[in-house]
Amino acid sequence: MKRVTVLGFILAALLLGPELYESVLRNIGMIFLDRYVANPVDLANDISLTCSREIFDTLAKLDSEEYWQYQERVHALLQYSESSEYRAYRENRLRLNLARRVHAQGVSGWAAHAFRDVIRSGTDQMKLEAYVGLADLLWSRGDLVGFDAVMEEASALSLPKWMSTFYNPGLTLLGGYVDFDALALRQPVHVAMVWQLAPEGEEVIGLTPNLGSLMSRSDDFSVLGWRGGLYQISVVENRIWDGGFGGVLFPREGAVAQLPLSLYGGASGSQGVALVYEHPPENRNVVLTIRGQEGSISGLSSEAMTIINDPCVAYVVTAKYRSLPGSQPLIGVRWLLKDAQSWDDNVSTYVVNAPNATWTTSVALLSPPSDAEKAQLWVLNINSVGELQVDDLGFFEIHLPCLDWGQ
User: Fold this and answer.
1) Of the candidates 86, 107, 99, which has an alpha carbon nearest to the alpha carbon of residue 127?
2) Who's near 315: CB < 8 A, 6+ residues apart?
3) Helix, strand, or coil here: 354?
4) In angstroms, how far is CA 293 from the centroid of its own chain?
5) Among residues 223, 174, 234, which one has the least CA distance to residue 198?
6) Rg of the chain (C-alpha set)
7) Model-level pTM greater than 0.85?
8) pLDDT bucket at 24, cuts 50 / 70 / 90
């Protein structure tokens, strides 16, 4: 029905003249492109992107100077959506999510098969999540030997290390993963963390070090204990909406919705701020650029976000960046304190504080100061005429395994 309607518009435009034909065709192409960018993980939107490509290929033949940018952008997005890397990611994430659901419904045979498929072909993060899901399944079957063997394999994965200001004498963060693909696609983000539980952990946080079973399971939070370790899987929303800038259709100069506030006057309004293609140009990945000003500070901030100030809640902050040598990038959180008498009384925690000419990803688990009530994500470029490029900005509220799940 939609295809017939689209063809009808095109035929009507052709009858009314070439200018209207071009205008209608462009609008239809943008509708298809907008539909894909709004939800790229929807399988139905693959067709939208293909239709958009065909339309802009046609328009580029009519006026290459006007439409080559549209054509290149759509081709780049389509090439990525058809890549084996992206297809494997999407298939494994869908398989993993479905395996969790059917296991919770008691269909353990199919779930076990799906978990093992992900272990064979998924990313390291997905493998860890699949190991935890499979271990829980085996435990529920009473297969303790299988459970122990699966967790042995899980423990052999190499964990990325995080910066952490979280402190609890019963818990030590060993490392974790963030699903940056989901962040870029504006989907709920899976965060996997591995903790070491101290021998006195039962007294400190109400957990027994060698539970050997899933202590909590829900759609967005699970914790499994094994040999004094805790394997936590959380599904959270990014409070910096579109922190990967994936919803931006084309590069442009000017302010960005994700970080709408200017800091220190260095990047006021649209000056010095742009959304550009990542170089070398792929025409599919858009990043934020802040051009520095010598002797001053250029920076952007999110709106103030209300936070939960609780010992069992922390915040994961992510940022991918690169900068020219000699620049001084600062990316982190400005904690707004309840009793602050002046702006300078508030405090900042930076997860990025050194230049790097190559793309570098930083992840931190931060506990707010005890009297903080709000937070802002800050991105600064200090005393430099060079550029700071930023991608994958994330601010996630994480509930931690420091409660007595038996109560």
Assistant:
1) 99
2) 307, 333, 365, 366, 367, 368, 375, 395, 396, 397, 398
3) coil
4) 30
5) 174
6) 24
7) yes
8) confident
